[in-house]
Amino acid sequence: MKALNTKTPYFFIAPALLLLGLFSLFPIVVALVISFTDISLESLGDWSSIRFVGLENYLEVFKDPIFMKSLFNTLFYVIIGVPLVIICSLAIALLINFGKARIFRAFRVIFYMPSITNVVAVAVVWSYLYNPQLGLFNYVLNFLHLPSVPWLTDPTMSKVSLIALAVWRGVGVNMIIFLAALQGIPKTYYEAAQLDGATNWKQLTKITIPLLRYAIFFVSITTMIGWLQFFEEPLVMTKGGPLDSTTSVALFIYRNGFQLSNFGYAAAGSFILFIAIIVITLLQFRLQKKEVDY
Amino acid sequence: METMKLNSVKAKPQRKSSVKARRTNRMQQWITGIILALGGFLISIPFIWMILSAFKPEMEVMQIPPTFLPKEFTLENFVNLFENMNFTIYLRNTIIVVLCSFVGLFLNAMAGYAFAKYKFKGREKLFYLVLATMMIPGQVTMIPVYLILNQLHLTNTMAGIVLPGLVGAFSIFLFRQFMSTIPDELLEAARLDGASEFRLFLQIILPISKPILAVQGILTFIAGWNSFLWPLIIANDENLYTLSVGLSLLKGQYGGNFALQMAGSTFMVVPIVIIFMLFQKHIIEGYTISGMK
Lengths: 294, 293
Description:
- Chain B: Its main location: membrane.
- Chain B: InterPro entries: MetI-like (IPR000515), MetI-like_sf (IPR035906).
- The complex is a heterodimer of chains A (about 290) and B (about 290).
- With about 290 residues, chain A is mainly alpha-helical.
- Chain A contains 13 helices and no strands.
- Chain A has a single domain (about 45-294), classed as MetI-like (MetI-like fold, Orthogonal Bundle).
- Chain A has helices spanning about 10-35, 55-65, 65-100, 105-115, 120-130, 135-145, 155-185, 185-195, 200-210, 215-230, 230-235, 250-260, 265-294.
- Chain B has 2 domains: about 1-55; about 75-290, MetI-like fold.
- The interface between A and B is large, with 94 and 96 residues.
Protein backbone atom coordinates (compact mmCIF):
# COMPACT_ATOMS: atom_id res chain seq x y z
CA MET A 1 0.00 0.00 0.00
CA LYS A 2 1.20 3.45 -0.87
CA ALA A 3 2.15 5.61 2.07
CA LEU A 4 -0.94 7.64 2.68
CA ASN A 5 -1.50 10.72 4.64
CA THR A 6 -2.27 9.03 7.96
CA LYS A 7 -4.92 11.57 8.78
CA THR A 8 -7.16 10.61 5.86
CA PRO A 9 -9.07 7.69 7.45
CA TYR A 10 -9.70 9.71 10.58
CA PHE A 11 -11.14 12.49 8.48
CA PHE A 12 -13.58 9.97 6.97
CA ILE A 13 -14.75 8.48 10.25
CA ALA A 14 -14.65 11.63 12.35
CA PRO A 15 -18.14 13.05 11.67
CA ALA A 16 -19.94 9.76 12.22
CA LEU A 17 -17.90 8.82 15.28
CA LEU A 18 -18.31 12.24 16.87
CA LEU A 19 -22.07 12.05 16.49
CA LEU A 20 -22.24 8.48 17.75
CA GLY A 21 -20.03 9.39 20.66
CA LEU A 22 -22.05 12.45 21.57
CA PHE A 23 -25.49 10.89 21.16
CA SER A 24 -24.92 7.22 22.01
CA LEU A 25 -21.86 6.59 24.16
CA PHE A 26 -21.51 9.75 26.22
CA PRO A 27 -25.23 9.67 27.16
CA ILE A 28 -24.68 6.31 28.87
CA VAL A 29 -22.20 7.96 31.21
CA VAL A 30 -24.54 10.90 31.74
CA ALA A 31 -27.45 8.54 32.44
CA LEU A 32 -25.43 6.62 34.99
CA VAL A 33 -24.29 9.80 36.76
CA ILE A 34 -27.69 11.50 36.88
CA SER A 35 -29.37 8.32 38.08
CA PHE A 36 -27.61 8.99 41.41
CA THR A 37 -28.84 12.58 41.61
CA ASP A 38 -32.15 14.37 42.05
CA ILE A 39 -31.84 16.38 38.81
CA SER A 40 -35.17 17.74 37.57
CA LEU A 41 -36.48 20.54 35.39
CA GLU A 42 -35.78 23.21 38.01
CA SER A 43 -32.14 22.25 38.37
CA LEU A 44 -31.48 22.79 34.66
CA GLY A 45 -31.18 26.52 35.24
CA ASP A 46 -29.09 26.15 38.34
CA TRP A 47 -26.66 23.23 38.32
CA SER A 48 -25.54 23.84 41.91
CA SER A 49 -28.95 22.81 43.21
CA ILE A 50 -28.47 19.20 42.04
CA ARG A 51 -27.99 16.89 44.98
CA PHE A 52 -26.22 13.55 44.99
CA VAL A 53 -28.67 11.05 46.45
CA GLY A 54 -26.81 7.75 46.14
CA LEU A 55 -29.01 4.76 45.47
CA GLU A 56 -32.20 6.52 46.54
CA ASN A 57 -33.68 6.65 43.02
CA TYR A 58 -33.13 2.93 42.55
CA LEU A 59 -34.67 2.05 45.90
CA GLU A 60 -37.54 4.44 45.31
CA VAL A 61 -38.33 3.10 41.85
CA PHE A 62 -38.79 -0.42 43.18
CA LYS A 63 -41.28 0.92 45.71
CA ASP A 64 -43.20 2.76 42.98
CA PRO A 65 -46.43 0.80 42.35
CA ILE A 66 -46.63 2.17 38.80
CA PHE A 67 -43.11 0.93 38.06
CA MET A 68 -43.97 -2.51 39.40
CA LYS A 69 -47.08 -2.50 37.28
CA SER A 70 -45.10 -1.47 34.21
CA LEU A 71 -42.64 -4.26 34.92
CA PHE A 72 -45.49 -6.77 35.03
CA ASN A 73 -47.01 -5.36 31.85
CA THR A 74 -43.68 -5.52 30.01
CA LEU A 75 -43.27 -9.16 31.03
CA PHE A 76 -46.81 -9.80 29.81
CA TYR A 77 -45.97 -8.22 26.44
CA VAL A 78 -42.75 -10.19 26.12
CA ILE A 79 -44.08 -13.57 27.22
CA ILE A 80 -47.08 -13.46 24.91
CA GLY A 81 -45.78 -11.27 22.10
CA VAL A 82 -42.36 -12.75 21.38
CA PRO A 83 -43.48 -16.38 20.84
CA LEU A 84 -46.42 -15.13 18.77
CA VAL A 85 -44.18 -13.08 16.49
CA ILE A 86 -41.73 -15.95 16.05
CA ILE A 87 -44.42 -18.55 15.36
CA CYS A 88 -46.37 -16.35 12.94
CA SER A 89 -43.34 -15.15 11.00
CA LEU A 90 -41.88 -18.65 10.80
CA ALA A 91 -45.20 -20.12 9.66
CA ILE A 92 -45.65 -17.48 6.97
CA ALA A 93 -42.06 -17.88 5.81
CA LEU A 94 -42.49 -21.67 5.57
CA LEU A 95 -45.72 -21.32 3.61
CA ILE A 96 -44.22 -18.79 1.20
CA ASN A 97 -41.13 -20.92 0.78
CA PHE A 98 -43.27 -24.00 0.12
CA GLY A 99 -45.07 -22.31 -2.78
CA LYS A 100 -43.54 -22.73 -6.21
CA ALA A 101 -45.60 -20.32 -8.31
CA ARG A 102 -44.46 -16.73 -8.89
CA ILE A 103 -47.49 -15.36 -7.07
CA PHE A 104 -45.92 -16.43 -3.77
CA ARG A 105 -43.33 -13.68 -4.15
CA ALA A 106 -46.15 -11.15 -3.98
CA PHE A 107 -47.06 -12.43 -0.54
CA ARG A 108 -43.67 -11.36 0.75
CA VAL A 109 -44.55 -7.79 -0.08
CA ILE A 110 -48.01 -7.97 1.51
CA PHE A 111 -46.80 -9.46 4.78
CA TYR A 112 -43.83 -7.11 4.95
CA MET A 113 -45.89 -3.98 4.40
CA PRO A 114 -47.09 -3.36 7.99
CA SER A 115 -43.55 -3.13 9.28
CA ILE A 116 -42.53 -0.18 7.12
CA THR A 117 -45.52 2.00 7.87
CA ASN A 118 -45.53 4.79 10.39
CA VAL A 119 -46.32 3.70 13.93
CA VAL A 120 -48.47 6.73 14.66
CA ALA A 121 -50.55 6.31 11.53
CA VAL A 122 -50.96 2.64 12.25
CA ALA A 123 -51.92 3.28 15.87
CA VAL A 124 -54.47 5.87 14.73
CA VAL A 125 -55.99 3.38 12.29
CA TRP A 126 -56.11 0.58 14.86
CA SER A 127 -57.66 2.88 17.45
CA TYR A 128 -60.45 3.43 14.96
CA LEU A 129 -60.77 -0.31 14.31
CA TYR A 130 -60.87 -0.92 18.07
CA ASN A 131 -63.42 1.83 18.73
CA PRO A 132 -66.23 0.32 20.83
CA GLN A 133 -69.11 1.93 18.91
CA LEU A 134 -67.82 2.74 15.42
CA GLY A 135 -64.97 0.27 15.09
CA LEU A 136 -64.88 -2.37 12.40
CA PHE A 137 -63.87 -5.19 14.75
CA ASN A 138 -66.86 -4.91 17.05
CA TYR A 139 -69.15 -4.44 14.06
CA VAL A 140 -67.94 -7.70 12.54
CA LEU A 141 -68.32 -9.48 15.90
CA ASN A 142 -71.88 -8.19 16.31
CA PHE A 143 -72.64 -9.10 12.73
CA LEU A 144 -71.65 -12.69 13.56
CA HIS A 145 -73.92 -12.46 16.64
CA LEU A 146 -70.95 -12.36 18.98
CA PRO A 147 -70.73 -9.92 21.90
CA SER A 148 -68.65 -6.73 21.62
CA VAL A 149 -65.13 -6.86 23.04
CA PRO A 150 -63.84 -3.98 25.23
CA TRP A 151 -60.65 -3.79 23.14
CA LEU A 152 -58.96 -0.83 24.79
CA THR A 153 -61.06 -0.29 27.90
CA ASP A 154 -60.52 -3.54 29.80
CA PRO A 155 -57.17 -3.75 31.66
CA THR A 156 -56.22 -7.21 30.36
CA MET A 157 -57.87 -6.95 26.95
CA SER A 158 -56.09 -3.65 26.25
CA LYS A 159 -52.72 -5.37 26.66
CA VAL A 160 -53.83 -8.11 24.28
CA SER A 161 -55.05 -5.51 21.78
CA LEU A 162 -51.69 -3.75 21.81
CA ILE A 163 -49.93 -7.08 21.36
CA ALA A 164 -52.13 -7.80 18.32
CA LEU A 165 -51.08 -4.52 16.77
CA ALA A 166 -47.40 -5.08 17.54
CA VAL A 167 -47.44 -8.65 16.22
CA TRP A 168 -49.08 -7.35 13.04
CA ARG A 169 -46.21 -4.88 12.66
CA GLY A 170 -43.46 -7.24 13.76
CA VAL A 171 -44.08 -10.26 11.55
CA GLY A 172 -42.70 -8.80 8.30
CA VAL A 173 -39.04 -8.26 9.14
CA ASN A 174 -38.65 -11.61 10.86
CA MET A 175 -40.40 -13.39 8.03
CA ILE A 176 -37.80 -11.96 5.64
CA ILE A 177 -34.97 -13.20 7.86
CA PHE A 178 -36.51 -16.68 7.99
CA LEU A 179 -37.02 -16.70 4.22
CA ALA A 180 -33.37 -15.82 3.67
CA ALA A 181 -32.34 -18.61 6.02
CA LEU A 182 -34.71 -21.07 4.30
CA GLN A 183 -33.22 -20.28 0.92
CA GLY A 184 -29.81 -21.08 2.34
CA ILE A 185 -30.73 -24.72 3.03
CA PRO A 186 -29.27 -26.90 0.25
CA LYS A 187 -31.97 -28.46 -1.95
CA THR A 188 -30.09 -31.76 -1.99
CA TYR A 189 -31.12 -32.47 1.60
CA TYR A 190 -34.75 -32.46 0.59
CA GLU A 191 -34.15 -34.46 -2.56
CA ALA A 192 -32.40 -37.14 -0.53
CA ALA A 193 -35.21 -37.17 2.01
CA GLN A 194 -37.83 -37.44 -0.74
CA LEU A 195 -36.04 -40.42 -2.23
CA ASP A 196 -36.21 -42.04 1.18
CA GLY A 197 -39.94 -41.36 1.15
CA ALA A 198 -39.97 -38.76 3.93
CA THR A 199 -43.27 -36.92 4.25
CA ASN A 200 -43.46 -33.13 4.13
CA TRP A 201 -43.99 -33.08 7.88
CA LYS A 202 -40.92 -35.25 8.46
CA GLN A 203 -38.85 -33.00 6.20
CA LEU A 204 -40.05 -29.97 8.13
CA THR A 205 -39.29 -31.31 11.59
CA LYS A 206 -36.13 -33.24 10.77
CA ILE A 207 -34.43 -30.96 8.25
CA THR A 208 -35.89 -27.49 8.12
CA ILE A 209 -36.45 -26.63 11.78
CA PRO A 210 -33.08 -27.98 13.00
CA LEU A 211 -31.25 -26.10 10.26
CA LEU A 212 -33.14 -22.92 11.07
CA ARG A 213 -31.96 -23.00 14.66
CA TYR A 214 -29.51 -20.18 14.24
CA ALA A 215 -32.09 -17.96 12.52
CA ILE A 216 -34.65 -18.74 15.21
CA PHE A 217 -32.11 -17.84 17.87
CA PHE A 218 -31.23 -14.58 16.14
CA VAL A 219 -34.87 -13.62 15.67
CA SER A 220 -35.81 -14.48 19.24
CA ILE A 221 -32.97 -12.38 20.66
CA THR A 222 -33.72 -9.31 18.55
CA THR A 223 -37.48 -9.65 19.03
CA MET A 224 -37.07 -10.05 22.77
CA ILE A 225 -34.87 -6.95 23.02
CA GLY A 226 -37.36 -5.00 20.94
CA TRP A 227 -40.36 -6.06 23.03
CA LEU A 228 -38.61 -5.28 26.30
CA GLN A 229 -38.55 -1.71 24.97
CA PHE A 230 -42.22 -1.75 23.96
CA PHE A 231 -43.07 1.91 23.83
CA GLU A 232 -44.67 3.61 20.86
CA GLU A 233 -47.83 1.53 20.67
CA PRO A 234 -49.02 2.24 24.23
CA LEU A 235 -47.81 5.84 23.98
CA VAL A 236 -49.95 6.66 20.96
CA MET A 237 -52.91 4.33 21.48
CA THR A 238 -53.66 4.23 25.18
CA LYS A 239 -51.18 6.61 26.84
CA GLY A 240 -50.65 3.74 29.28
CA GLY A 241 -54.29 3.54 30.32
CA PRO A 242 -56.75 2.36 31.45
CA LEU A 243 -55.34 2.69 34.98
CA ASP A 244 -51.77 2.09 33.83
CA SER A 245 -52.70 -1.37 32.64
CA THR A 246 -50.76 -0.87 29.38
CA THR A 247 -47.86 1.22 30.74
CA SER A 248 -44.58 -0.46 29.80
CA VAL A 249 -41.26 0.19 31.50
CA ALA A 250 -40.15 2.28 28.52
CA LEU A 251 -43.30 4.37 28.70
CA PHE A 252 -42.79 4.77 32.47
CA ILE A 253 -39.29 6.12 31.79
CA TYR A 254 -40.55 8.48 29.11
CA ARG A 255 -43.32 9.78 31.32
CA ASN A 256 -41.11 10.39 34.31
CA GLY A 257 -38.47 11.99 32.15
CA PHE A 258 -40.47 14.22 29.86
CA GLN A 259 -43.84 14.74 31.44
CA LEU A 260 -42.87 14.84 35.11
CA SER A 261 -39.27 15.98 34.44
CA ASN A 262 -37.78 13.73 37.13
CA PHE A 263 -34.69 13.11 35.04
CA GLY A 264 -32.68 11.33 37.73
CA TYR A 265 -35.53 9.05 38.68
CA ALA A 266 -36.25 8.19 35.04
CA ALA A 267 -32.55 7.52 34.40
CA ALA A 268 -32.52 5.04 37.28
CA GLY A 269 -35.52 3.29 35.72
CA SER A 270 -33.78 3.20 32.35
CA PHE A 271 -30.70 1.58 33.85
CA ILE A 272 -32.80 -1.13 35.43
CA LEU A 273 -34.29 -1.79 31.99
CA PHE A 274 -30.83 -1.80 30.42
CA ILE A 275 -29.53 -4.32 32.95
CA ALA A 276 -32.61 -6.49 32.49
CA ILE A 277 -32.02 -6.53 28.73
CA ILE A 278 -28.37 -7.49 29.15
CA VAL A 279 -29.16 -10.25 31.65
CA ILE A 280 -31.93 -11.74 29.51
CA THR A 281 -29.77 -11.65 26.39
CA LEU A 282 -26.87 -13.35 28.17
CA LEU A 283 -29.24 -15.96 29.54
CA GLN A 284 -30.45 -16.72 26.05
CA PHE A 285 -26.90 -17.11 24.81
CA ARG A 286 -26.26 -19.52 27.68
CA LEU A 287 -29.34 -21.58 26.83
CA GLN A 288 -28.38 -21.67 23.17
CA LYS A 289 -24.91 -22.93 24.05
CA LYS A 290 -26.35 -25.75 26.14
CA GLU A 291 -28.53 -26.80 23.24
CA VAL A 292 -25.55 -26.99 20.91
CA ASP A 293 -23.71 -29.22 23.38
CA TYR A 294 -26.28 -31.97 23.08
CA MET B 1 -40.64 -26.56 -14.20
CA GLU B 2 -37.25 -28.07 -13.59
CA THR B 3 -38.23 -29.84 -10.41
CA MET B 4 -41.33 -31.23 -12.07
CA LYS B 5 -39.19 -32.78 -14.77
CA LEU B 6 -36.80 -34.14 -12.22
CA ASN B 7 -39.59 -35.71 -10.24
CA SER B 8 -41.06 -37.48 -13.22
CA VAL B 9 -37.68 -38.87 -14.20
CA LYS B 10 -37.01 -40.19 -10.76
CA ALA B 11 -40.41 -41.73 -10.29
CA LYS B 12 -40.51 -43.62 -13.57
CA PRO B 13 -40.58 -47.10 -12.07
CA GLN B 14 -43.81 -46.42 -10.18
CA ARG B 15 -45.78 -44.30 -12.56
CA LYS B 16 -49.15 -44.60 -10.89
CA SER B 17 -48.02 -43.41 -7.50
CA SER B 18 -46.15 -40.52 -9.11
CA VAL B 19 -49.34 -39.27 -10.77
CA LYS B 20 -51.04 -39.46 -7.42
CA ALA B 21 -48.12 -37.76 -5.72
CA ARG B 22 -48.17 -34.97 -8.25
CA ARG B 23 -51.87 -34.47 -7.72
CA THR B 24 -51.53 -34.25 -3.94
CA ASN B 25 -48.58 -31.95 -4.48
CA ARG B 26 -50.68 -29.63 -6.60
CA MET B 27 -53.45 -29.76 -4.01
CA GLN B 28 -50.97 -28.75 -1.33
CA GLN B 29 -49.76 -25.84 -3.44
CA TRP B 30 -53.31 -24.61 -3.86
CA ILE B 31 -54.09 -24.94 -0.16
CA THR B 32 -50.91 -23.06 0.75
CA GLY B 33 -51.83 -20.32 -1.69
CA ILE B 34 -55.34 -20.02 -0.30
CA ILE B 35 -54.13 -19.87 3.32
CA LEU B 36 -51.63 -17.16 2.41
CA ALA B 37 -54.20 -15.21 0.43
CA LEU B 38 -56.58 -15.27 3.39
CA GLY B 39 -53.79 -14.24 5.75
CA GLY B 40 -52.73 -11.50 3.37
CA PHE B 41 -56.26 -10.20 3.22
CA LEU B 42 -56.55 -10.15 7.02
CA ILE B 43 -53.20 -8.37 7.28
CA SER B 44 -54.34 -5.74 4.78
CA ILE B 45 -57.67 -4.98 6.42
CA PRO B 46 -56.34 -2.00 8.42
CA PHE B 47 -54.93 -0.46 5.23
CA ILE B 48 -58.05 -1.11 3.19
CA TRP B 49 -60.31 0.31 5.88
CA MET B 50 -58.07 3.33 6.36
CA ILE B 51 -58.08 4.26 2.69
CA LEU B 52 -61.79 3.67 2.24
CA SER B 53 -62.68 5.71 5.31
CA ALA B 54 -60.41 8.58 4.30
CA PHE B 55 -62.62 9.29 1.30
CA LYS B 56 -65.91 9.18 3.19
CA PRO B 57 -67.53 12.29 4.60
CA GLU B 58 -67.46 12.49 8.40
CA MET B 59 -71.21 11.79 8.57
CA GLU B 60 -70.86 8.53 6.69
CA VAL B 61 -68.10 7.27 8.98
CA MET B 62 -70.40 7.79 11.97
CA GLN B 63 -73.08 5.56 10.45
CA ILE B 64 -73.99 2.15 11.87
CA PRO B 65 -73.88 -0.20 10.02
CA PRO B 66 -70.81 1.16 8.25
CA THR B 67 -70.66 1.40 4.48
CA PHE B 68 -67.92 -0.54 2.74
CA LEU B 69 -67.21 1.65 -0.28
CA PRO B 70 -67.67 5.41 0.21
CA LYS B 71 -71.26 6.20 -0.76
CA GLU B 72 -70.28 9.76 -1.34
CA PHE B 73 -66.67 10.02 -2.48
CA THR B 74 -65.00 13.14 -1.08
CA LEU B 75 -61.58 14.77 -0.83
CA GLU B 76 -62.84 17.16 1.83
CA ASN B 77 -60.84 15.45 4.62
CA PHE B 78 -57.55 15.96 2.83
CA VAL B 79 -58.39 19.56 1.98
CA ASN B 80 -59.27 20.07 5.62
CA LEU B 81 -55.90 18.69 6.76
CA PHE B 82 -53.94 21.12 4.66
CA GLU B 83 -56.15 24.20 4.92
CA ASN B 84 -57.11 24.09 8.58
CA MET B 85 -54.72 21.72 10.30
CA ASN B 86 -51.16 22.88 9.51
CA PHE B 87 -50.34 19.76 7.56
CA THR B 88 -48.45 21.92 5.07
CA ILE B 89 -46.01 22.88 7.83
CA TYR B 90 -45.75 19.29 9.06
CA LEU B 91 -45.05 18.12 5.53
CA ARG B 92 -42.36 20.79 5.06
CA ASN B 93 -40.67 19.77 8.32
CA THR B 94 -40.84 16.09 7.43
CA ILE B 95 -39.18 16.79 4.10
CA ILE B 96 -36.43 18.75 5.87
CA VAL B 97 -35.88 15.81 8.23
CA VAL B 98 -35.68 13.42 5.29
CA LEU B 99 -33.17 15.61 3.45
CA CYS B 100 -31.00 15.92 6.55
CA SER B 101 -31.05 12.18 7.08
CA PHE B 102 -29.55 11.81 3.62
CA VAL B 103 -26.62 13.89 4.86
CA GLY B 104 -26.38 11.35 7.67
CA LEU B 105 -26.39 8.56 5.10
CA PHE B 106 -23.44 10.20 3.39
CA LEU B 107 -21.54 10.38 6.69
CA ASN B 108 -22.31 6.70 7.31
CA ALA B 109 -20.97 5.81 3.86
CA MET B 110 -17.79 7.79 4.56
CA ALA B 111 -17.22 6.00 7.86
CA GLY B 112 -18.03 2.62 6.36
CA TYR B 113 -15.53 3.28 3.57
CA ALA B 114 -12.72 4.18 5.96
CA PHE B 115 -13.37 1.07 8.07
CA ALA B 116 -13.38 -1.09 4.95
CA LYS B 117 -10.48 0.28 2.95
CA TYR B 118 -7.91 1.93 5.22
CA LYS B 119 -5.53 0.47 7.73
CA PHE B 120 -5.15 2.78 10.68
CA LYS B 121 -4.39 2.70 14.34
CA GLY B 122 -7.35 1.71 16.45
CA ARG B 123 -9.46 0.60 13.50
CA GLU B 124 -10.72 -2.62 15.09
CA LYS B 125 -11.40 -1.03 18.45
CA LEU B 126 -13.26 1.92 16.98
CA PHE B 127 -15.35 -0.38 14.83
CA TYR B 128 -16.34 -2.48 17.83
CA LEU B 129 -17.25 0.74 19.58
CA VAL B 130 -19.53 1.59 16.68
CA LEU B 131 -21.15 -1.84 16.83
CA ALA B 132 -21.57 -1.54 20.59
CA THR B 133 -23.82 1.50 20.14
CA MET B 134 -26.38 -0.78 18.46
CA MET B 135 -27.01 -2.52 21.75
CA ILE B 136 -27.81 0.57 23.77
CA PRO B 137 -31.55 0.85 24.24
CA GLY B 138 -33.11 4.13 23.18
CA GLN B 139 -34.72 4.62 26.58
CA VAL B 140 -31.34 4.90 28.28
CA THR B 141 -30.00 7.59 25.97
CA MET B 142 -33.29 9.47 25.59
CA ILE B 143 -33.02 11.60 28.72
CA PRO B 144 -29.28 12.34 28.61
CA VAL B 145 -29.50 13.27 24.93
CA TYR B 146 -32.29 15.69 25.77
CA LEU B 147 -30.14 17.21 28.52
CA ILE B 148 -27.14 17.45 26.18
CA LEU B 149 -29.20 19.14 23.48
CA ASN B 150 -30.64 21.46 26.08
CA GLN B 151 -27.11 22.36 27.18
CA LEU B 152 -26.20 23.08 23.55
CA HIS B 153 -29.33 25.28 23.24
CA LEU B 154 -30.66 23.01 20.52
CA THR B 155 -34.01 22.10 22.06
CA ASN B 156 -36.90 23.32 19.98
CA THR B 157 -34.72 23.64 16.87
CA MET B 158 -34.55 21.63 13.67
CA ALA B 159 -30.91 20.73 14.39
CA GLY B 160 -31.93 19.23 17.71
CA ILE B 161 -34.56 17.09 16.00
CA VAL B 162 -32.23 15.80 13.33
CA LEU B 163 -28.86 15.36 15.07
CA PRO B 164 -29.55 12.47 17.51
CA GLY B 165 -30.54 10.05 14.76
CA LEU B 166 -28.30 11.36 12.00
CA VAL B 167 -25.79 8.50 11.92
CA GLY B 168 -26.45 4.87 12.69
CA ALA B 169 -24.16 1.98 13.52
CA PHE B 170 -26.07 -0.57 11.48
CA SER B 171 -25.81 1.56 8.37
CA ILE B 172 -22.05 2.03 8.86
CA PHE B 173 -21.76 -1.72 9.31
CA LEU B 174 -23.61 -2.45 6.06
CA PHE B 175 -21.52 0.06 4.12
CA ARG B 176 -18.34 -1.47 5.48
CA GLN B 177 -19.50 -4.98 4.52
CA PHE B 178 -20.25 -3.91 0.98
CA MET B 179 -17.22 -1.70 0.43
CA SER B 180 -14.70 -4.26 1.66
CA THR B 181 -15.55 -6.28 -1.48
CA ILE B 182 -14.28 -3.47 -3.76
CA PRO B 183 -10.84 -4.50 -5.12
CA ASP B 184 -7.87 -2.47 -3.87
CA GLU B 185 -6.31 -2.35 -7.36
CA LEU B 186 -9.07 -0.03 -8.49
CA LEU B 187 -8.19 2.47 -5.80
CA GLU B 188 -4.47 2.15 -6.44
CA ALA B 189 -4.96 2.92 -10.11
CA ALA B 190 -6.92 6.05 -9.33
CA ARG B 191 -4.30 7.14 -6.78
CA LEU B 192 -1.57 6.77 -9.41
CA ASP B 193 -3.58 9.12 -11.58
CA GLY B 194 -3.28 11.62 -8.78
CA ALA B 195 -6.85 11.64 -7.52
CA SER B 196 -7.25 12.94 -3.98
CA GLU B 197 -8.68 10.59 -1.36
CA PHE B 198 -11.94 12.44 -1.12
CA ARG B 199 -12.40 12.55 -4.88
CA LEU B 200 -11.65 8.86 -4.97
CA PHE B 201 -14.49 8.31 -2.54
CA LEU B 202 -16.92 10.52 -4.46
CA GLN B 203 -16.11 9.42 -7.99
CA ILE B 204 -15.14 5.78 -7.65
CA ILE B 205 -16.42 4.33 -4.39
CA LEU B 206 -19.89 5.85 -4.36
CA PRO B 207 -20.78 4.90 -7.96
CA ILE B 208 -19.66 1.30 -7.35
CA SER B 209 -21.69 1.19 -4.15
CA LYS B 210 -24.94 1.98 -5.93
CA PRO B 211 -26.74 -1.24 -4.85
CA ILE B 212 -26.13 -0.67 -1.16
CA LEU B 213 -26.77 3.06 -1.55
CA ALA B 214 -30.15 2.28 -3.10
CA VAL B 215 -31.21 0.01 -0.25
CA GLN B 216 -29.94 2.38 2.40
CA GLY B 217 -31.38 5.39 0.63
CA ILE B 218 -34.85 3.89 0.62
CA LEU B 219 -34.59 2.78 4.24
CA THR B 220 -33.32 6.23 5.19
CA PHE B 221 -36.22 7.87 3.41
CA ILE B 222 -38.70 5.63 5.21
CA ALA B 223 -37.08 6.24 8.59
CA GLY B 224 -36.98 10.00 8.03
CA TRP B 225 -40.55 10.15 6.83
CA ASN B 226 -41.68 8.16 9.87
CA SER B 227 -39.51 10.01 12.41
CA PHE B 228 -41.52 10.48 15.56
CA LEU B 229 -39.67 10.25 18.87
CA TRP B 230 -37.12 13.07 18.54
CA PRO B 231 -39.50 15.60 17.03
CA LEU B 232 -41.93 14.73 19.81
CA ILE B 233 -39.34 15.27 22.54
CA ILE B 234 -37.45 18.22 21.08
CA ALA B 235 -40.16 20.30 19.41
CA ASN B 236 -42.31 22.42 21.71
CA ASP B 237 -43.47 24.53 18.85
CA GLU B 238 -46.02 23.30 16.36
CA ASN B 239 -43.92 24.95 13.65
CA LEU B 240 -41.36 22.18 14.10
CA TYR B 241 -43.74 19.22 14.20
CA THR B 242 -43.30 16.44 11.68
CA LEU B 243 -46.23 14.60 10.11
CA SER B 244 -46.27 11.84 12.69
CA VAL B 245 -46.19 14.22 15.64
CA GLY B 246 -48.88 16.30 13.95
CA LEU B 247 -50.96 13.19 13.42
CA SER B 248 -50.72 12.15 17.06
CA LEU B 249 -51.75 15.71 17.99
CA LEU B 250 -54.70 15.36 15.63
CA LYS B 251 -55.67 12.11 17.34
CA GLY B 252 -55.66 13.90 20.69
CA GLN B 253 -57.57 16.97 19.54
CA TYR B 254 -60.03 15.51 17.08
CA GLY B 255 -60.49 12.10 18.66
CA GLY B 256 -63.98 11.68 17.25
CA ASN B 257 -63.26 12.76 13.68
CA PHE B 258 -62.29 9.42 12.30
CA ALA B 259 -62.52 10.34 8.63
CA LEU B 260 -60.09 13.19 9.23
CA GLN B 261 -57.73 10.92 11.14
CA MET B 262 -57.88 8.28 8.43
CA ALA B 263 -57.08 10.93 5.83
CA GLY B 264 -54.04 11.97 7.86
CA SER B 265 -52.91 8.36 8.21
CA THR B 266 -53.48 7.70 4.52
CA PHE B 267 -51.36 10.69 3.67
CA MET B 268 -48.55 9.28 5.83
CA VAL B 269 -48.81 5.66 4.80
CA VAL B 270 -49.59 5.69 1.08
CA PRO B 271 -46.38 7.43 -0.14
CA ILE B 272 -44.33 4.89 1.80
CA VAL B 273 -46.36 2.01 0.42
CA ILE B 274 -45.89 3.28 -3.13
CA ILE B 275 -42.13 3.70 -2.68
CA PHE B 276 -41.95 0.30 -1.08
CA MET B 277 -43.90 -1.32 -3.93
CA LEU B 278 -41.59 0.28 -6.49
CA PHE B 279 -38.38 -0.76 -4.78
CA GLN B 280 -39.50 -3.82 -2.83
CA LYS B 281 -37.16 -6.11 -4.71
CA HIS B 282 -34.15 -4.03 -3.72
CA ILE B 283 -35.32 -3.65 -0.15
CA ILE B 284 -36.24 -7.25 0.56
CA GLU B 285 -33.38 -8.84 -1.34
CA GLY B 286 -30.72 -6.25 -0.64
CA TYR B 287 -31.66 -6.07 2.99
CA THR B 288 -31.42 -9.78 3.57
CA ILE B 289 -28.31 -10.32 1.48
CA SER B 290 -26.35 -7.54 3.14
CA GLY B 291 -27.82 -8.25 6.53
CA MET B 292 -27.16 -11.95 6.67
CA LYS B 293 -23.54 -11.88 5.53
